[in-house]
Amino acid sequence: MKPALAALALALAWAAHAQDPAAPVAAKPSLTIQTTLAQPAQWATRLPVNGNVAAWQEAVIGAEVGGMRIAEVLVNVGDRVKKGQVLVRLSPGTLQADLAATRASLQEAEISARDARAQAERVRPLAGTEALSAQAIDAALAAADMAEARVASLKARLMADELRLGYTRIAAPDDGVITAREAVEGALAQPGQELLRLQRQGRLEWRAEVPGPLLDQVKVGQRARVQLGTTAVEGRVRQVAPKIDPQTRNGLVYVDLPATAGARAGLFARGDLLQGEGQVLTLPQSAVLLRDGFSYVFKLEGSKVRQAKVEVGQRQGDRVEIKTGLDAKTPVALSGLGFLADGDTVRVAK
Q: Rounded distance, CA 277 to CA 215, Å?
């Protein structure tokens, strides 16, 4: 019965108004709102970009000699290593025997060279006399030279054998973190084959993709703020790419990142390139309505609100930058924008 009574009361009200046009008609109930003004603030101007986290430099560690079996792998993925630390040992095979044979040959050659030098020194004063023929003297001097050359050749061979034996101990070329391990104990190593991968010095960088026309705004040394999961870290621009990718029309900006537990190579991250501070107008986010892909505010004009489109910029905390569409003197509705429509009558809470 209640809906019927309400309908009857409304019909009687309109009938009375029809008989007496001067009689007041009940107005649409108005909403009570709170208002706010756009506040100026000193914010760092930012260029929002996306990019990937990558290793600053990654070294591929492989074998330099072939035909040797991997005897021992001393590290695993995630291990931090120091420059010169032995990472992999190869079985030396016949290299030690070759080295011992070369050392023995060198010792023999040095003895022969001493004898040849002594013989040359004995016959040298006899040159130009009839005690010994010139041919015999020349032969003695040549024998000494040949003995010296053989010694030099064996010394070089000894160095090569020692170097090859040293290659069986594969060491870290720099401090860093092991990011990949392909080496398997017992496998046969081949020259150039990747055994390990090293992230040099454990350093990471953020490779931000910046639209080509905006690349000139980025300078070396500029600060950047990168969002890594729930953690925001600050870095510095180390390098700006000298060219633009013809496919994406973007250029890379390389940002050095500090050591942090949240950073991993291969992680996609959003961030901002900070470009100095400037004064901006800001509103609480609750005072800005997102509708149909555009941002709006409700300006207060007397007892009514008017919907107005605004251009928003960066956000910090619970406030948003208003670039255009609003000045600092116009009050706007603070909250409850989803219940308002253009031209609604409102009451302002005091």
A: 19
Question: Residues 61-84: pLDDT tens digits?
Answer: 999 888 889 999 999 998 999 999
* 198-219 pLDDT tens trace: 999 989 999 999 998 888 889 9
Alpha-helical runs (H) found in the chain: 2-19, 95-123, 134-166
Residue type for 236, please? R
Nearest to 171 by CA among 305, 59, 8, 271: 59
pTM of the model: 0.61
Are 216 and 103 in contact by the 8 Å Cβ rule? The answer is no
Model confidence over 165-201: pLDDT tens digits? 888 899 999 999 999 999 999 898 888 889 999 999 9
Compute CA distances 145 → 102, 106, 112, 138, 172, whole Å.
20, 16, 11, 11, 43
Domains and CATH numbers, the chain: 28-42+279-348 (2.40.420.20), 47-56+202-277 (2.40.30.170), 58-91+168-200 (2.40.50.100), 95-166 (1.10.287)
Q: With beta carbons less than 8 A apart as the criterion, state whether 254 and 236 touch.
A: no
For 77, list phi and psi in degrees, rounded to 5.
-60, 135
**Burial status of residue 52 (CB atoms within 10 A of its CB: 0-12, 13-18, 19 or more):** middle
CA separation for the pair 312, 335 (Å, rounded): 17
Summary count for the chain: helices (H), strands (E): 3, 22
